[in-house]
C-alpha cells in the first residue's frame, strides 16, 4: 500500500515566498493545499496546487482548511507595509489557532526587523530582540506569540532570512530599486554604502531549505528558530554582479535618494514606513547559519552570479542574447 503524501496548508501562496515554498514542497512529493480569497483566479496562475477559498483574517476558515495538514506555512503579509499591527498579528494568531487545533507544525518566515544595534553584526538565534522600529516591535510580538503557543504544545519553526530576491520576487529591493524590472538597467541604484555587507536570500534556495526542514520537522524542538545565511555581499559586490550579468562593465552605480524619502515621509504613509527601515542598509546585519547547517548538513546555495542572472532574466532586465 502506497504511503500517503504529507499535506501542507499554504497561507499566502500567491506571494513570492509562499509560492516558491509551495513549489519546493510539491517537487518533494507533498500535497499542497493553498488558501486564497479568489481560488479560481489563483488556480489559473498556479494550477498545481489544491486551491480553496478563504481569508487569512477568518479564523474559522483557516482552522477548517488546516484540519488534516501536517504543516502550515504562514506567509501572509500586509501589502506595502500597511497596518502591520492590525493585520499581521491577527493573521498569525489565526494560523496558531489552526496549528493548535490540527496538531500541524506552523512554519513562519522570519526576517531581521526583530533586531536592534545590540544584536549586530553577526546575529545568532539567541541574539536579543530589542528593535528600534515599529515593524520590528510587531515582528517581536509575532515571534513571542509562537513561543507562548509552544508552552501549550503548539509546534512552530521560524526560518529567518535576509532581503528576498529571485524570479518571483517582483516587489523586492532588487526588482523595484536596484535593477528595476522591465528593461535592461541603465544604472544600479543601491540603498546603502557600497562597502557595507548586506544579507540576501535567493528565494529558490530559501524555499528548498524550508522544504527540507519540513521533511524533518518532527525531529525539531517544539519551538524552533533557524537562521538562513543566504548571500552576504557588499553593495560593491552586488553592483559588480549586475554589471557582469548584463555584460555592461561601465554600468554606473548611484545612491538611493533617501533624502527625498525623508522629505516625503511625513505625507506618504508607505514612505514613512520605508524611511524607518533605512538603518538595515547602513549597518551590517549578518545571520549566523551554523545551527541550520548542523541540522541539514548544508545550506542550499545557488552561486550569486547564477542567482542574479536567473532573477534579472525573469524580470526582463537582460538583452535577448544574454538569455540564450
From TrEMBL:
GO CC annotation terms, alphabetical: cytoplasm
A GO MF label: aldehyde dehydrogenase (NAD+) activity
InterPro entries linked to this entry: Epimerase_deHydtase (IPR001509), NAD(P)-bd_dom_sf (IPR036291), NAD(P)-dependent_oxidoreduct (IPR051783)
Pfam families named among the record's database cross-references: Epimerase
Highest taxon in the source lineage: Bacteria
Domain NAD-dependent epimerase/dehydratase, first and last residues per copy: 8-215
PANTHER family in alphabetical order: NAD(P)-BINDING DOMAIN-CONTAINING PROTEIN-RELATED, PROTEIN YEEZ
Protein name, per record: NAD-dependent epimerase/dehydratase domain-containing protein
Naturally occurring in which organism (per UniProt): Methylocystis bryophila
Amino acid at each position: 500500500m502506497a504511503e500517503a503524501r504529507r499535506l501542507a496548508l499554504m497561507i499566502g501562496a500567491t506571494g513570492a515566498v509562499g509560492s516558491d515554498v509551495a513549489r519546493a514542497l510539491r517537487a518533494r512529493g507533498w500535497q499542497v493545499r493553498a488558501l486564497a480569497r479568489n481560488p479560481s483566479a489563483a488556480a489559473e496562475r498556479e494550477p498545481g496546487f489544491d486551491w480553496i477559498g478563504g481569508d487569512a483574517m477568518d479564523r474559522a476558515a483557516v482552522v477548517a482548511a488546516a484540519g488534516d495538514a501536517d504543516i502550515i506555512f504562514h506567509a501572509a503579509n500586509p501589502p506595502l507595509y500597511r497596518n502591520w499591527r492590525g493585520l499581521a498579528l491577527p493573521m498569525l494568531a489565526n494560523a496558531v489557532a489552526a496549528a493548535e487545533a490540527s496538531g500541524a507544525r506552523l512554519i513562519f518566515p522570519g526576517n531581521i526587523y526583530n533586531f536592534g544595534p545590540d544584536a549586530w553584526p553577526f546575529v545568532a538565534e539567541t541574539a536579543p530582540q530589542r528593535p528600534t522600529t515599529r515593524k520590528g516591535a510587531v515582528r517581536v510580538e509575532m515571534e513571542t506569540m509562537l513561543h507562548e503557543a509552544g508552552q501549550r504544545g503548539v509546534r512552530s519553526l521560524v526560518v529567518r532570512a535576509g532581503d528576498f530576491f529571485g524570479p518571483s520576487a517582483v516587489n523586492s529591493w532588487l526588482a523595484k530599486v536596484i535593477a528595476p524590472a522591465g528593461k535592461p538597467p541603465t544604472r544600479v541604484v543601491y540603498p546603502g554604502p557600497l562597502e557595507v555587507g548586506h544579507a540576501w536570500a535567493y528565494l529558490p534556495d530559501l524555499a528548498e531549505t524550508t522544504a527540507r526542514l519540513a521533511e524533518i520537522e518532527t525531529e525539531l524542538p517544539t519551538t524552533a528558530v533557524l537562521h538562513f545565511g543566504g548571500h552576504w555581499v557588499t553593495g560593491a559586490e552586488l553592483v559588480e554582479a549586475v554589471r557582469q550579468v548584463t555584460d555592461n562593465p561601465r554600468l554606473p552605480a548611484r545612491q538611493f535618494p533617501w533624502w527625498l524619502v525623508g522629505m516625503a515621509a511625513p505625507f506618504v504613509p508607505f514612505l514613512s514606513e520605508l524611511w524607518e527601515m533605512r538603518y538595515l542598509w547602513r549597518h551590517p546585519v549578518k545571520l549566523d547559519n551554523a545551527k541550520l547547517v548542523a541540522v541539514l548538513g548544508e545550506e542550499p546555495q545557488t552561486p550569486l552570479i547564477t542567482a542574479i542572472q536567473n532573477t534579472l532574466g525573469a524580470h526582463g532586465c537582460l538583452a535577448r542574447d544574454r538569455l540564450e
